[in-house]
Amino acid sequence: METIRLNGGLKRNNEKEITNFSDDEMQGFQDEMLALTDNQIAIQKDSKRKIIEKAINEVPYRANEEWETQLLSKGNINKSNEKIITPLPVLFPDDDESGNSIERINEMVSKICLQRKKVEMRLQALEKTKIDLEKSKASLINKLIGN
């Protein structure tokens, strides 16, 4: 601390003028108490984990929520944002040809099944990404704590 004070401290207006600072500003430079027992080490790691998780949780969730909403809207999963309801296809047109209508119905069913599979695959990819991100978050926290 003495070296910091002699070399200009934390705040410097110019090379010649040095502003004084209090001991409260030195709190950031002081080390924690050295943990000697396993219990103290566990308590110290737990407190570091809580501090890191608190800092992570302080980040507004709004940005993540908007990102997730945008991804879901691309897959047409989130229909609550739409103001206009998409009209349903006409299942039985005025045609009396029963063969054509059955073919059209089969075609529509196959398209719907394909769309459903695409949405399910996107959902699975999003869930996998979420799990991977949670694992990487946990590993980063463990690295920061020093496990």
Automatic annotation (TrEMBL):
Keyword Coiled coil tagged: yes
GO CC terms of this entry: U2-type post-mRNA release spliceosomal complex
Superkingdom as given in the UniProt entry: Eukaryota
Name under which the protein is recorded: Nineteen complex-protein
GO BP annotation list: spliceosomal complex disassembly
Coiled-coil residue spans: 116-143
Pfam families: NTR2 (PF15458)
Organism, scientific name: Saccharomyces pastorianus (Lager yeast)
InterPro entries associated with the record: Ntr2 (IPR028211)
Record's keyword terms, sorted: Coiled coil
